[in-house]
Amino acid sequence: MWEKLKQLARRYDEIGELLEVPEIYADPKKLRALTREQKELSAVVETYRAYQKCEDDIVQALELVSDPELKDMAQEELNTAKAEKERLFDELRVLLLPRDPNDDKNVIVEIRGGVGGEESALFAADLYRMYAMYAEKRGYRVELLNYNDTELGGVKEADFIVSGDGAYSRFKFESGVHRVQRVPETESGGRVHTSTATVAVLPEMEEVDVDLRPEDIEMQVYRASGAGGQHVNKTSSAVRLIHKPTGTVVSCQEERSQLQNRAKCMAMLASKLYEAERERVEGAITSERRAQVGSGMRNERIRTYNFPQNRVTDHRLTGENKNFNIDTVMNGDLDPIIDALTMQEQAEKLRESTEA
After folding, report:
1. Rounded average pLDDT over 98-126
2. Residue 198: how many other CB atoms lie within 10 Å
3. Residue 288 pLDDT level (bands cut at 50, 70, 90)
4. Which residues pair with 111 in a beta bridge?
């Protein structure tokens, strides 16, 4: 562990020196790569150097403890430095855990109504609102790709990109079936119904990250429908791309020009093909998207939104604190859930690294 930290610190300093060389700015690709690597290393190197400083503080405090006049002050400083050293050690162990290479990427989120008819569509619309509010709280930007709504204000499907530093690291925990228990607006008898909506989360990939050959892609254009502004049904600006070798289909209709919609489609297609290739390498039988959302049946849920009991339960959390206030969650306060899931994942990785 310590040798690895020394290597990372040396590499961090080396990058700092390279970025001071004027010639590096003539190569934008290399500059971006070095800047990204420096950013990835900064947290662990800064924590390592803080740990080293704690060690120096402990040595100095131990030297002063033998002085009768400074003993009390030195002992206090010694206790503080030891506690801080222990905290930093735990932090370093977490920072050195294997990191998802996609964590810093933007994310493509797909929401679909599941079991429950119109009520599932209404719940899907609630989830879209929840994620849009969460993205705003985090300072992320949301770009709508598709929004196919219903007459009652529900959503059959909603696709959007969330852009911002670490967007995928936060949204990746949302993949799966979300279950809602409440009295639907369409229910006259006051009975509680159970419905579902599915959420798929993909890291946004660039075309250069995936081998996209023009001859493999069929493009179709059509008139936009649903929520789309003044251009709806007036021009054939909506775009659908079909990747012929795999049968993957993506579409976008929210931009005003065909060119803009095609660009968004290409990003979506690259992301889906990347996921499919990653699964193939990992030996997965079904695609990542199907693994995330399942069939939409009620028993394949990751989270339950129980309105009568005013709580949200995340079924992946194993501790006692897996219930959250439904009003705050539906208004975009997802950080307590995501933080708990992140800490649980880190604890599991630490346990695995210790057992290895």
Report:
1. 88
2. 27
3. low
4. 158, 199
Q: Contact at 8 Å (CB) between 206 and 266?
A: no
Give the rounded distance of the alpha carbon of 134 from its chain centre.
12
Do 178 and 227 fall within a single domain? no
Q: How far apart are CA 26 and CA 36, in angstroms?
A: 17
Whether residue 197 contacts residue 120, with contact meaning beta carbons closer than 8 Å, is answered with: yes
Identity of residue 215: E
Domain contains 324: yes
Phi, psi of 352 (to 5 degrees): -65, -40
Q: Residue 259 contacts by C-beta under 8 Å, 6 or more apart in sequence?
A: none
105: Cβ contacts below 8 Å, ≥ 6 apart:
167, 168, 203, 204, 205
Q: What Å distances lie between residue 201 and 171, 287, 291, 319, CA to CA? A: 7, 12, 11, 25
pTM of the complete model: 0.66
The answer to whether residue 335 is domain-embedded is yes
Beta bridge partners of 144: 160
Tokens of 164: 């911002």
Question: Do 101 and 165 touch, CB atoms closer than 8 A?
Answer: no
Taking a C-beta distance cutoff of 8 angstroms, is the pair 185, 122 a contact? yes
Domain co-membership, 168 together with 187? yes
| Structural domain range at position 251 | 208-282
pLDDT over threshold 80, residue 224: no
Any domain includes 288:
no
3-state secondary structure of 134: helix
Q: Return the bridge partners of 217, or none.
A: 243
Are the beta carbons of 233 and 225 closer than 8 angstroms?
Answer: yes
CATH at residue 71: 1.20.58
